[in-house]
Each structure stands twice: as structure tokens, then as C-alpha cells.
């Protein structure tokens, strides 16, 4: 059934097949060109809901630089994985070919920033994906003030980041590209393109594609994942083509697969918070959570705990209710 496995991989898009995002893409390209030619605007914001194509657009921008051999280097940092100031800087240095050995990783931040400034001869396109996860938001302002660096900030909602920044960070002047969730017809095209590219003809019914497109609320990742579930089930049950009435089950299962994925990427503190919430079972106040974490030997500020709780909430692993002191948190399970 499968001719090319990449078709079901949500970490890849084929270059020639960006469906319907040429306008925001051109906005990014022209903002970047203006920066290179005239030095204006030191970056851009890409926002929008999950599966709207934010990471994909930033990757395309990097590819465009390579393809057109523009005199610009690029670095991509997934801040969800590398959230501390040192991690972000060391990863960016790594991306521009200035690898650090283990002993050098404790280098002071100012020195790491200096190394980054010097590591690239040409201007640098720096992509900070999932930037709301950043441990010290002041670093964003430092990048935006750095000469020769054009920073692309990616997050779902600009406010997730900007409420943690002060005025000196200069984010208000950034070009903002907001991607709305896709319409069902666009999801349908994205699916059809993938099917045509990677599956044998006659593997999927039209009904399945249409149903999935109608169910995923504009989230391309969920749609592609659901196609993957459909393909797996069809292979193990020896059914062909994938019938329309499987769509709902496939989307539900895909949603669960996506929900589980961040769990494996939690850092030690996030995992501890998640486990404590799970252990408590119901709604918990900050004070209780703080005490339980202390008892586990995890000594972090309430501000940090709150930031991690926001991240867990963002990935649908916990929920919150109430305001300020009365705020309560609860683990979300299956
Ligand atoms: N316009 C499109 N054309 C073709 N494929 C697309 C398009 N938009 C998204 N995709 C595919 O959908 C998947 C999800 O897209 P992407 O990773 O860019 O989402 P995102 O907006 O970064 O979501 P998140 O906030 O969850 O990180 C990827 O596999 C991507 O290649
Ligand atoms: Mg993304």
C-alpha cells in the first residue's frame, strides 16, 4: 500500500507541495530581503494554531536561502527541547558549525553570545520554534538587538511570549504573520497530495479523505496522522481501500497519539509536575504542588512551576481553572 513512507511523517513536507500558503510565505521572504538589503526589521513572528504550517514555513524559508545561495546562514532551535539560555545559544552555535565540547558548555552566556556573533560571516537567520517555552525571555530581546541576526519567532499565540517580555525587547516592531487554521477543502488537498505522492492508487476512498478533512478542525498534522492510522489499520486488517466509516476512529486515535508525544519530551521538572498532578488525581493548588515538588528534591520558584504548568496546559497534559491565588491545576489523562 505504501510506496513512500515519508508520506505519513508529519516532520517532513515535500518542498514543492506547500498547499495554499504562498502569501504568508512571500511576506516572510520580502521581510527577510528588506532586512538583507536595507537592514530594516530584525525579525518576524509566525503564529497560529497547531498544524497550521508554522514550522513548515520557517523550514521553507531556510531552504529558499540554500537554494538561491543567498549570502545568509541559518540556524533552527526548537525551544521546547532546548529552553535554557545556554541550551539555546549552544544549539544555535552548533547549527552554524561552531560545535562546543562538553567542558565548554558551562561558558558564561555573554561569552556564548559573543561566540555566536563571531561564528557567522554572513547574516544569520535564527528560527526559535515554540519560543514561548523559553526559560529566560530576555534572551529574545538580546537576539533582536544582535547585529547581523534576523530572528523568526514561532508560537501559537504571540501573547504567550510577549506578556513575559519588557519593552526593551523590541518585539512590537516585528512583522507578524498569522496563519489561520486551514479550511476543510485545504486539508483535503494536503491529504490528496500526500496520498498521490506516497500511496498506491486505490488505497484510500474519497469518503475517508473528506470525512477526515471535515473532522480535524483545520489541523494538518492531525489529518496526516489520521491517514497514517488508517493506513496501519488497513494493512493489519488486509482491507483496501480505507473505508469512509473508519475516519472518525482514525482521527480519535491520531489525536491520542499526538497528545502522548510531548509526554516523552518533558524535561525532569515538567515530568515531576505532571507526575505529581497525576498522583493527586483532582484539582490541586500551587501551594500543594510546590510542597510536593520540594519533598521530591525539586527546588524551583513558583514562577517556574507556573511556566511549566502553562506548557503542560498548552500540550493538553493539564488544565487550569480559577484566577490568581485561587487557581487550581489538574492532570489531563486519556
Ligand atoms: N500548506 C501545507 N501544505 C502541505 N503540507 C502541510 C501544509 N501545512 C502543514 N503541512 C504539514 O502538516 C504537518 C504539520 O505542520 P507544521 O509542523 O508546520 O505545524 P505547526 O503549525 O508548526 O504546528 P505546531 O504548533 O503543533 O508545531 C507537517 O507535516 C507539514 O508538513
Ligand atoms: Mg511546529
List the helices and strands and how they pair.
Elements: H1 22-38, E1 43-47, H2 54-67, E2 73-78, H3 85-95, H4 109-119, E3 124-129, H5 138-145, E4 149-155, H6 158-162, E5 175-178, H7 184-198, H8 206-215, H9 220-237, H10 247-260, H11 268-280, E6 284-285, H12 286-295, H13 302-314, E7 318-321, E8 328-331
Parallel strand pairs: 1-4, 1-5, 2-3, 3-4
Antiparallel strand pairs: 6-8, 7-8
The structure holds adenosine-5'-triphosphate (ATP) and magnesium ion.
What does this protein structure show overall?
Helix 7 packs across helix 8 (206-215). It contains 13 helices and 8 strands. The protein has 334 residues and is α/β, with parallel strands linked by helices. A 5-stranded parallel beta sheet has the order 2-3-4-1-5, sandwiched between helices. Strands 6-8-7 form a 3-stranded antiparallel beta sheet. Helices cover 48% and strands 11% of the residues. The site of adenosine-5'-triphosphate (ATP) has 20 residues, from helix 2 and helix 9. Residues 54-55, 129 line the site of magnesium ion.
Amino acid at each position: 500500500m505504501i510506496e513512500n513512507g515519508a508520506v505519513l511523517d508529519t516532520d517532513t513536507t515535500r518542498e514543492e507541495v506547500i498547499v495554499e500558503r504562498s502569501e504568508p510565505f512571500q511576506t516572510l521572504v520580502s521581510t527577510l530581503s528588506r532586512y538583507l538589503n536595507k537592514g530594516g526589521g530584525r525579525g518576524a513572528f509566525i503564529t497560529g494554531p497547531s498544524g497550521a504550517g508554522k514550522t513548515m514555513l520557517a523550514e521553507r524559508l531556510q531552504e529558499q536561502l540554500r537554494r538561491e545561495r543567498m549570502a545568509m546562514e541559518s540556524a533552527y532551535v526548537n525551544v521546547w527541547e532546548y529552553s535554557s539560555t545556554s541550551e539555546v545559544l549552544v544549539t544555535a552555535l552548533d547549527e552554524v558549525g561552531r560545535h562546543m565540547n562538553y567542558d565548554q558548555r558551562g561558558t558564561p552566556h555573554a561569552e556564548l553570545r559573543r561566540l555566536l556573533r563571531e561564528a557567522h560571516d554572513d547574516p544569520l537567520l535564527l528560527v526559535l520554534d515554540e519560543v514561548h517555552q523559553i526559560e529566560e525571555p530576555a534572551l529574545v530581546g538580546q537576539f533582536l538587538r544582535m547585529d547581523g541576526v534576523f530572528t523568526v519567532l514561532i508560537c501559537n499565540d504571540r501573547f504567550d511570549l510577549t506578556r513575559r517580555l519588557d519593552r526593551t525587547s523590541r518585539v512590537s516592531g516585528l512583522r507578524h504573520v498569522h496563519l489561520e487554521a486551514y479550511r476543510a477543502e485545504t486539508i483535503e488537498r494536503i491529504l490528496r497530495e500526500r496520498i498521490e505522492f506516497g500511496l498506491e492508487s486505490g488505497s484510500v476512498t474519497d469518503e475517508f479523505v473528506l470525512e477526515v478533512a471535515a473532522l480535524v478542525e483545520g489541523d494538518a498534522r492531525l489529518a496526516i496522522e489520521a491517514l497514517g492510522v488508517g493506513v496501519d489499520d488497513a494493512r493489519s486488517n488486509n482491507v483496501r481501500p480505507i473505508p469512509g466509516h473508519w475516519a472518525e476512529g482514525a482521527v480519535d486515535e491520531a489525536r491520542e497519539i499526538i497528545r502522548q508525544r510531548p509526554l516523552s519530551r518533558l524535561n525532569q521538572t515538567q515530568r515531576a509536575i505532571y507526575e505529581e498532578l497525576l498522583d493527586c488525581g483532582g484539582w490541586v493548588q500551587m501551594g500543594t504542588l510546590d510542597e510536593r515538588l520540594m519533598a521530591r528534591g525539586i527546588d524551583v520558584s513558583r514562577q517556574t512551576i507556573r511556566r511549566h504548568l502553562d506548557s503542560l496546559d498548552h500540550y493538553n497534559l493539564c488544565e487550569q481553572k480559577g484566577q490568581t491565588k485561587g487557581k487550581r491545576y489538574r492532570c489531563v489523562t486519556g
